[in-house]
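Deliverable D5.2: sample structural annotation.
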Amino acid sequence: MAAIEIRGISKRFGSVQAVSGLSFEVDGGRVTGFLGPNGAGKSTTLRILLGLVHADGGTAEFGGRRFEQLPEPSAEVGAVLEDASFHPGRTGRNHLRVLAAAGGHPPSRVDEVLDDVGLGRDAGNRRVKGYSMGMRQRLAIAAALLGDPEVLILDEPTNGLDPPGIRWMRDMLRSEAGRGRAVLVSSHLLSEVSQSVDDIVVISHGELRASGSLREVLGRAEGGVARVRATDPEALGRALSAANLAYESDDSGALLVGGATPEAVGIAANDHDVPLSELTSVGPSLEEVFFELTGEEEK
């Protein structure tokens, strides 16, 4: 059974259909990127999953149970939503102490998670009103980790983080998945997502556009290119033309064959006895696939 199972959820706000028949799964031990343009329904989906919004139809469950049915929610699910808020007069440590007491977690977890997110003793003793946006984001993640949960749900977790902080976040996500946790992360930083996730779910206008492993989704998209190189480029060009494979040269002298698999290029070269020194597949970037799947125009 998947750690998170979303089955046919729908939600309408007045005349706006925020989510429509959405289904996907998130497995333990993997980082899943939840992607979509602004207004796609990502935040609504996460709020339904966490019991903050009631769906008009469908189910959103953790191991077969809704969030409100979990006996110890903060020990099973840790979440950071984009609009996390704090009492400005409290210190980071006191904020976490209150949450630890409410969740029944040992006080020792407070210092542990402060260290885990890079805040430590000095920052933990400062009032939250003096925190930078990046420090507030780290504090929110520390709160999500208090119960050492099996599932992490993070909505735009890199907001406010500087480059070292973004790298730390990437390592943290991989570390949690390596411990067997299921990690669902919503983000608009596509280049960062491509370095961090195992699986992706792409939605647009509240509907599913693609789901699966990162490699599978990129492989299904249009725009794949085979890069090939030979000691005799002219002979290779003639072989490709004979097979009706269009190509162009890149700056390094390799030939780029659009819309063809490496196997097809290799067969064409072999049919004309052209030895190859390089033959690789150059897939589309996650950004290119995102725009293709969502119909959004790159700006």
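Annotation notes: The chain has two domains: 4-219, 224-282. The chain has a mean pLDDT of 91.
The annotation will be released with the project's public dataset once the embargo ends.
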